[in-house]
Amino acid sequence: MRRLVALPMGKSVQMAYQSIKVRFFRSLITTMSLVLAVAFLCYILVGNDLAQALLSTGDPVLGQKLISAGYDVAPGDTSLAATAKQRWIVFLSLLVCVVGIINAQLMSVTERFREIGTLKCLGALDRYIVRLFVLEAAMQGLTGSFAGMLAGILAATFSGTIRFGLDIFGIYPFQEIMISAAWAIATGTGLSLLGVLYPALLAARMQPVEAMRVDQ
Amino acid sequence: MAEKHIVRVTDVTKHFDLGKIVVEVLKGIDLTIETGKYISIMGPSGSGKSTLFNMIGGLDKPTSGKVFIDEVDIAQLDAYELAWLRCRKIGYIFQTFNLIPVMTALENVTIPMTFAGVSHDESLERGMELLQLVGLEGRHSHRPSELSGGQQQRVAVARALANNPAIILADEPTGNLDLKTGEDIIQLLKTLSSSYGVTVISATHDYKMLNVSDQVVWIRDGRVDKIQERSELEIRTGGLGTVEAEP
Questions:
Q1: Is the dihedral of CA B228, B245, B16, B204 positive or negative?
Q2: CA distance B227 to A93
Q3: Nearest by CB: B101 against A15, A115, A121
Q4: Is a pLDDT exceeding 80 seen at residue A80?
Q5: pLDDT over threshold 90, residue A166
Q6: Is residue A38 included in any domain, yes or no?
Q7: What is the predicted ipTM?
Q8: How many CB atoms lie within 10 A of CB A158?
Q9: Cβ contact B223:B27 at 8 Å
Q10: Could you tell me if residue A216 is inside a domain?
Q11: What is the mean pLDDT of residues A26-31?
Q12: Domain ABC3 transporter permease C-terminal spans what residues (chain A) (predicted)?
């Protein structure tokens, strides 16, 4: 006889989704820091895309506007890279975001110790617990990053319109912006998964006997 | 005819190493539990009752000695086999009910069946039957927060029965319930035990349990103090004399 326990993928996805849905407000807070960080990242990336597109037109008037908007371009430059300062700020914001996610997920594990212990008493393996947490984080990561990406693009387009006028819609670099958006979503989802790794392992290592504990 | 022993505990000791001191919680316990009986493990707090109970449930391993569940030495099992044992052989009932808060009553009852590999439709059908059995028909779509304590414990009883386990382990099942609801749960467990032949083992402080127990195991100071059959309990005390005898 094969002594195996099972948890089909479909069921895991359903359980993870249900957990997010029921604790919606809680999940929203966990996701919020991610939304902000991804929005910021996307804003910077798309802002650079727009500036690059403006620069590529070779129009000296637009070039002058770029310089007065604070971009480091010398006359004659044809490409524009993210500045060191930008990179540092983005990096820091992502770092803060990961720490926030880890913190929120650790709290969620602590809150759910009884639930995790009970699942183990009912026959769940360590990896089912990890899978549930990772799936939850992936769903939160994807939705959060998507929302952040939209917010970032809108903000960058809006501020671009204010700085450079309606000209930007003539040269709106769709393809580059799509690539930037994909980057932002991938980074956000990746960060969400990175943040859940340690809390999920901690949850998986929890002993089933924890479910018996009465004191809170 | 040899009686079948569902649980056999031989010379079990358990130490907890707390760094500077080692606490001996169990100091050599021998115990056999027959299939189909309703057993209560009684003892004051700190007596090692819970530790013994967790050992029988395969939740903890002994420092020395052996615990056999259905003639299988649990110390020999790996993580997969232990999970399988918990899933198929043992049904757990907790003092704090421990239903999964985000799931409905029916979903709570069907999780163990999902782990056991039962198909979705089949588990739903059996889940509904079990809820009916514990008297909760029509409540299947309620979340635990929408149920009373007694109803939550009924869901937990249904969940414990999901995979037709050989043993139901109930840790203070009436500890968080009022007198009347507690009695209802005890009666429910007793009925299930006699009609399905499930062995019920409960750790308890609750003297209401004595009336339905086939056997009472008294634990004191890490050892089995005495084992009383039901008949002895009734003859000697009618339930309460023993109570006074305990500190």
A1: positive
A2: 65
A3: A115
A4: no
A5: no
A6: yes
A7: 0.87
A8: 11
A9: yes
A10: no
A11: 87
A12: 89-208
